[in-house]
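This entry is listed as follows:

___
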Amino acid sequence: MVQKGPRPLVLCGPSGSGKSTLLKRLLKEFPDKFGFSVSHTTRKPRPGEKDGVHYHFTTKDNMAGAVERGEFIETATFSGNMYGTSKSAVDDVRRTGKICVLDIEIEGVKQVKHTDLDPLLVFIMPPSIEELERRLIARNTENEETLRKRLETAIKEIDFGHEPGNFHIVITNDNLDKAYSDLKEFIAQNNDNRGEETPDGGQNSNDN
C-alpha cells in the first residue's frame, strides 16, 4: 500500500519536450515542497548520471523479479530497456510530507490511473515535431536510428497527450519561463492545502 500524503504530480512528455528541465527548476526552487521519485531502469548510465539520483540502475532479471512480486506501480519498455516506478520510491517521498513528482511515459500514466495514487497529470507538449527533432539533435546523444525511434515514439505520445481526459492539463513548452509559470500555477490551484509556500504563478524562478 502506498503511503498517504500530498497528491503526487506526474510529468509526461516526449524526450526533448523539456519536462526534465521544468522538473529541475521545480525541485531547485522548492526543495522542501517537492521530492523526485527516482525510477528504476535496466539501461546503462549516461555520462554524469549517478545511481540512486537520476535512476536506480538495475538488471533485467532483478527488475523482472521485482515486478512479479508486485513491487512496482508502473513499468514500461523502451528501446529494449525496462523503466519503472517502485512503490518504495514513492513511499520514500510521501512519508516526508512532500509532493512526490513522477517523470513517466504514457504507458506508465495508463497504469498509474488504475492505482490509488490519484495524481495530478501534466503533459508537456513540444511546440512542434520539427523543434523536438532540433532539440534531440542538439543533445548529441542520439544516432540516426535512435533519433528516428524517439521521433516515432514522440508522435504517438503527442497524440495521446491531445486526447481529452488523459491529462488534467497540457502545457506547450515553446517558452520555458512561461511553461514553468503555467506549471506552478496549476500545482498551486490543485494542491492549495500544502501551506503558504506552495508555488504560485506569480512567483519568479531564480534558475538560469
User: Anything to note?
Assistant: Helices lie at 19-29, 60-68, 87-94, 106-112, 129-139, 144-162, 176-190. The first strand starts at residue 9 and ends at 12. The chain has one domain: 9-190.
